[in-house]
Specification:
Elements: E1 5-9, E2 12-14, E3 22-23, E4 25-29, E5 32-37, H1 39-43, E6 52-55, E7 60-63, E8 65-70, H2 72-78, E9 82-83, H3 90-101, E10 110-115, H4 128-131, E11 138-142, E12 147-150, H5 152-157, E13 170-172, E14 178-183, H6 188-197, H7 204-218, E15 220-226, H8 237-245, E16 252-257, E17 274-282, H9 312-325, E18 328-333, H10 336-352, E19 361-364, H11 370-378, E20 382-385, H12 387-400, H13 412-417, E21 422-424, H14 435-444, H15 465-471, H16 474-479, E22 497-500, E23 517-522, E24 525-529
Parallel strand pairs: 1-6, 2-7, 8-15, 9-10, 10-11, 15-16, 16-17, 17-18, 18-19, 19-20, 20-21
Antiparallel strand pairs: 1-4, 2-3, 4-5, 7-22, 11-12, 12-14, 13-14, 22-23, 23-24
Helix pairs in contact: 2-7, 7-8, 9-10, 12-14
Bound molecules: zinc ion.
Amino acid sequence: MKERARLYSNCRVKTMNPLVLQAEAFLVYGEMIEAVGKNEEVRRHSLAGEAEKIDLEGRRVIPGIIDSHLHFSAWSESKRAVDLSECRSIPEVVEKLSERVSTLPPDAWVRGMHFDHSRFAENRLPDRSDLDAVKNPVLLTRVCYHAHCANSRALEMAGIPGMKDLPGGIQRDGAGNPTGVVLESGANMLFDAFRKGSAGGDDPLEGLSGCMREMASYGVTSINTTSAKHLGIDESFGPYQELERRGELLQRVTIHFNDLLPFGISSFLGSDSIRLGGLKLFADGGFCARTAAMSFDYKGMPGYRGDLNYDPAAFSAIVLEAQAQGVQVAVHAIGDRAIDMVLDAFEAAIASHPRLWLRHRIIHCYIVRPEQAKRMASLRVIGDIQPVFLADEIDIAEAGIPEEVLPISYAWRSLQESGVLIAGSSDCPAALPNPWLGIDAAVNRVRSKERTPVGGWFPEQKLTLDETIALFTRNPAVSLGMGDMTGTIEAGKFADFVVLEDDPWSMPAEDLSKTRVAATFRGGECIFGKI
Ligand SMILES: [Zn+2]
């Protein structure tokens, strides 16, 4: 069955192969693409005679979408949490949590996620005095994952009150007591207590499997999932291997961890369906929690420039060790001061162990000075961006970044024009996983709900639709070291492709986020929909 030939014809294929961008037909044999071209060309192929013929009736086809940075297990976990994304005040948060509590035993933890306090009437993070209205232990995580809130019960269960030396990140009131607001890795003890308190429960594989089905419905055929241990986010190979045994692994999975693997394992070891990505590090914090490291003062906070998570020399030593082992390093860096530290480390590591096949990555790249972009390009560093964040962060950016820095913020076209390869992703569950929201944000650059400013925020930084589809297909394939396997519709690559119901190239740009997928194929097999 697998080795059967299928000829898809009468379609409008955007191959994303820059040499032959458009095609009308393609031939799939087993998992692979054998031929791509005009209808009559592909029909002349030696396998075409016996191939099953599928007439796509003029539909648009694009390569399988690749999400080059997200946290898949955390997303699956977050689906079980109380969704606070629609809350507009702290009492609404408490109400939502109380609703959930009414269905739980008295000691069960209540996890709340996806809230954005900049949308609350109070415009502040909830603290223990707010959350003590809920009697069960409560642990909330802000949509960006860099700020957390706990009630007194949760703080007690984590053993925090009464501790002499509180870890950094745990906010204290004037009397030195924890307020319940915790930034960054200060939340580790809370996560440990939460995990201990909520062991057992639903089958986590069921959750992962559901997330894969949802991704397939958007046209996603590959993902890069990432551990973020200090934020309570973990990944491991086992669950994905088990899903593969069950026949439920729909996407190709590349995993980045926060440590080097033993036995000298270098990047991309694995199969075409589950493989090691590399090492994920965090150079600075989040922009919303104002923990990202800038070279300038935050607006309205004289003298405050955020924080680096590392001493630069210690950071360089880790990157050097990874480079020596042949491991891709993907570094979370939002502020330009963090990017300086990362580029210094990359440059030194590459100079001491040159490996042309190995390209490192900077994830987020919010504020990149022009000379930094040029340096990224010359070191062949990939910029992994999440356009969808812009749609929710225009106000946060304008409130926190000095006006003169705004033009180099979320400046994707400038990055690209400096020669940086940019790859698109969702960072789910920090944002919704649907890549069409990111595609909309890259093309339109407006607030997600209000669709303002009209014409786009710094519209000179908009990407074209072709560039944006490359951002979510061809470019992330390179970012994940799988550019020879997938990312374009091209003979010799896996048959990872999406048949669209709507044609993004002929619909109004404003409607891109609503693009419907008819069917998604990975390695020639249909993983969503039908045609
Ligand atoms: Zn992330």
